[in-house]
Amino acid sequence: FLAFPLIDIFFKVLNRSSAIGVENLPKEGGALIACNHISWVDTLIVPVFSAKRMSIEPFLAPGKEELFRIPIVRTIISVWGSFPVRRGKRDFDSMRRISYYTANYRVMIFPEGTRSKTGELLKGRAGVGWIIYHARPVVIPTLVINTERYFRLGGPRPWFFVPYKVVFGKPLDLSRFYALDDSKETSQAIADEIMSAIAALKEEHKGEYI
Questions:
Q1: Is the pLDDT assigned to residue 50 strictly greater than 70?
Q2: Distance CA 94, CA 161 (A)
């Protein structure tokens, strides 16, 4: 938590960032924070508003293994609680790790499995549904707004004065899926349900894009 003051200054003071629905996060126990993904900054801003302050409990987030090959990025995201996962294949070790962590810690995950280059939501990955089916955590659909403006291809980075926003939805009731067989179809249905909830948040807050 020693990194929080500097991160707070960047997001809350220099960029006037804010959050809606923080009260939807459980006060005790773990949770899976399922968020859309439009910028690598998402990995930093979501914990700013959802990690437990002044606590030894880690806030955890899987990150693509390519990022861990860049020394300065690896240092930043590792301190922040990120760990590498392999994309393009089922990384069962990481999936089991996430499943275990969600029982006690807040874990952020991107159901789309990759960053959306257009800002439009992508189809959720069945692997996320598999994790949820087996872990049965509290799932918080989450929307990040405006973080794609942190880096614009071919243009300067607007380091300051970009008001990012994070919206935490109400916990999802996924109990009806747990009575189904453990199958790829069930896992995909869970992932689709989560993406539908994120899409609803996006529709509700679409006027807040700047």
A1: yes
A2: 36
Per DSSP, the three-state class of 35 is strand
Under 8 Å between Cβ of 32 and 135: yes
pLDDT digits (tens, 9 = 90+) for 114-156: 889 888 999 999 999 999 999 999 999 999 988 776 655 555 5
DSSP 8-state class, residue 19: E
Could you identify the residue written with the tokens 């880690």? Answer: 58
pTM of the model: 0.81
Q: Whole-angstrom Cα distance, residue 202 to residue 34? A: 13
**CB neighbours of 15 closer than 8 A, spacing ≥ 6?**
160, 161, 162, 163, 164
Domain ranges of the chain: 4-208
Give the total residue count for the chain: 210
CA distance 2 to 5: 7
Give whole-number Cα distances, 111 to 10, 115, 126, 131, in Å: 26, 10, 8, 11
* pLDDT greater at residue 200 or residue 66: 200
The CATH superfamily of 4-208 is Glycerol-3-phosphate (1)-acyltransferase (3.40.1130.10)
